[in-house]
Give the backbone structure.
Amino acid sequence: MSLEMNKIAAAGLTAGVVAMLSGFVADLLVHSERLEENAYPIEVASSEAPGEAAPVDTGPDPVLPLLASADAASGESLTRACQACHSFEKGGPTKVGPNLYGIVGAAVAHVEDYSYSDAFATKHEEGVEWTYSNLNLFLANPREWAPGTKMSYGGMKKVEDRADLIAYLRQNADEPAPLPSQEEVDAVKAEQTDAAAAEASGEAAAAEGSADANAQGEQAAGEPVDQQGPVQMIAAADPAEGEKVARKCAACHSFDQGGPNKVGPNLYNVVGGPVAHLEDYNYSSAFQELHEAGETWTYDQLWTYLQDPRGTVPGTKMSFAGLEKEDELAAVIAYLRQQSENPPPLEP
């Protein structure tokens, strides 16, 4: 019996040795090479959505092509929003801001008896002048053109309004500055054409990639979207930051209880209160109509108004153009909410 078992074990061992030697010999006789790439390439769809073309920032629309036909009388009416802080007639007084007679073509910060901000003082030292283009850039966005300016005005969005205002300022001078030459106007129009072409090209590239992006990058149907409305943003905002932002409004408003009316009304208790709620302030007819209609300063109403005062309440005497940044809006309203005896709850 043991002899038979030994024979079986020997046979198995012999078979294993033969198999091993066969593989070794095969490797010596046949040399395989690794392919550098697959014989049949497999295409895999990319999971990355195509990048959107960066928007072309061309800045505010230029006024040079509009000045020859601009309406100076309309520009004068636009200055009513500025008259609380500026005078425009020759020899006019310095107010919150400097007198603006003869400003077109003058050096920046040219009034000797006015204490300009460091931003304007620096531009004066650099020899910057109030050209039509510089006036246009400043009026469109004062804080962007002169970071650190003391001027609280948020800017004039419509290029036609800026052209009319500059036309009026041009008339307010002993010798009005010459209008732009046709060559200057043509050069600006050519720049506009080039910028429009570049923007159109960027939009076309973004649109071309959007079809693939829709299939790969869009949120699945039914998936919740993380969005915050004004009330949620106000609830999360820091009132201390809002107080800092509100300093730009302090020239026209007071915020404390019993504070005085200035160019604008005191804003204590404004949150949740009726529109035009102060009896000792002369509101515009636009606000008086809202008061008669029973409108109140809800969070949504404040949000909309502070974003675009003149668009929300046409006819308002408030010259401030509005707060563009939503975090600043939320913080200011959170601060105003603190300046109230009984503000409405912050509920979604």
Q: What stands out?
A: DSSP finds 13 helices and no strands in the chain.
